[in-house]
Design brief:
It contains 4 helices and no strands. By secondary structure, it is mainly alpha-helical. The radius of gyration is 38 Å and the shape is elongated. The N and C termini lie far apart (about 85 Å).
């Protein structure tokens, strides 16, 4: 191979255009003070956004760890008592009367919260 064969594959890049001083001035920021203020605002927004996300996460944890299990346990027991009463009335025709519904509901709520 000769020297001319190896240079045939070399692609020369075109020269870069010379920028004028006007172009350089236009690309500079207006002032350093305005850019520092904008960055402070961005930081404040990101801090507020981070706190908002943390508070949403705490609410989600509260719901999933405390409220939902308590409500599920309360209504699960209520459903079980209802189902058991229906079964017992079918199997043994005995009528059960709750004399104080508020006491019955309060006892169910206390019983559901007892083991949490």
């Amino acid at each position: 191979m000769s020297m001319s064969d190896s240079t045939d594959y070399v692609i020369e890049e075109p020269p870069l255009p010379i920028e004028s001083d006007d172009d350089e001035v236009d690309s500079l920021p207006e002032s350093e003070d305005s850019s520092s203020l904008e960055s402070d605002e961005d930081e404040e927004e990101s801090d507020a956004e981070r706190e908002w996300k943390e508070s949403l996460q705490q609410i989600e944890l509260l719901l999933t760890m405390v409220v939902v299990p308590y409500i599920g346990k309360y209504f699960g027991r209520k459903c079980a008592y209802w189902g058991w009463a229906k079964f017992m009335m079918w199997k043994y025709p005995v009528e059960i009367k709750v004399t104080s519904p508020t006491t019955f509901k309060a006892a169910g709520a206390v019983e559901a919260a007892a083991s949490l």
